[in-house]
Amino acid sequence: MPPRRSNTLTEAELRLMRLLWRLGECSVQDLVSAMPADARLAYNSVLTTIRILESKGYVEHRQDGRAFLYTAVVAEHDAQQSEVRHVIGRFFENSREKLMLAVLGDGQVSAEELARLKQAIAEAEAAARSTEQEVPGQ
């Protein structure tokens, strides 16, 4: 049974996950090399962090000769959804409405973002209506 995945990723873990999502299967040295020069971590720091990610259930490895190759086993979208659920539960009493009102109320939403949000709401409404129609007895 795989380890239980933690709800959250630290900044260092998220940086490595983003690289794994972009690069696919790779070695620790590949990860180190792919980091921007001004933010590059030491090999041992990357190795420690990737092992933590493996223990959390986000990454797995396979051996190729003497090297270990690491792969993300949690899709980026799934990790994003997990983080959003965590934030909603922790700060917004499990209310998506409270989250959206907080996002919209900060005055930082552009007209383009609002248009995309309106479209997403319209699509969610259509999906909810079609689901309601499929339920017998309604």
From TrEMBL:
It comes from the Bacteria. The keyword DNA-binding applies. The keyword DNA-binding applies. Keywords: DNA-binding, Transcription, Transcription regulation. GO terms for molecular function: DNA binding. Pfam families: Penicillinase_R (PF03965). One of its GO terms (biological process) is negative regulation of DNA-templated transcription. InterPro entries: BlaI_family, WH-like_DNA-bd_sf, WH_DNA-bd_sf. Belongs to the BlaI transcriptional regulatory family. This is BlaI/MecI/CopY family transcriptional regulator. It comes from Terriglobus albidus.
